[in-house]
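Q: Convert this sequence to structure tokens.
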Amino acid sequence: MLQHHHGPRGRREGKSLFTRSRRTASPPLNSSVSHFMNPAVDLTIEFKSERFDYTGELPPGANGGNCFYGKDLAEFMCKVLEQHGVFGEYFDEDWGWLVLAHENSEPMIEMCVYHWQDESSYPQNTWRIRVASYVHDRFLYFFYKRREVENSSSLISSLRSIFDQADFQISIFGESDDW
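A:
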């Protein structure tokens, strides 16, 4: 067995290198630190609608060649959100469609649009949107770090109004762990 010699500056017999402080309770975290430990909850909207195409021909170059439905839903979201003071644009991604928007200058709003198909082979008209808001915090003067924040109450109210007034059959409007 290998033994270490600690010499005159080493630790005393029976003392651990990692000793506990005499203070038993830790001080409360300030809000900026506790925020990093409790990330904001994303909003999930799941619904059924025949309004958006889920059976037609898809362009072969869309979504990095993966061809996902949802472009017309992303266009729709940009159009109706603009009527509520939320301005954005949409992009195709290799996983689906992305809407980037903002109410004011910050926070930025990210909406991931998915055609939610289960394992069955027949086409379904189920859609899912994940809504998250974030800000860019500056650190080391030149760099920015993305930090999620809560979705604003005005954004949630606008989305609720949009989905309540349309011909959507909503199954989820809130938090969901099923992603």
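The longest strand covers residues 126-139.
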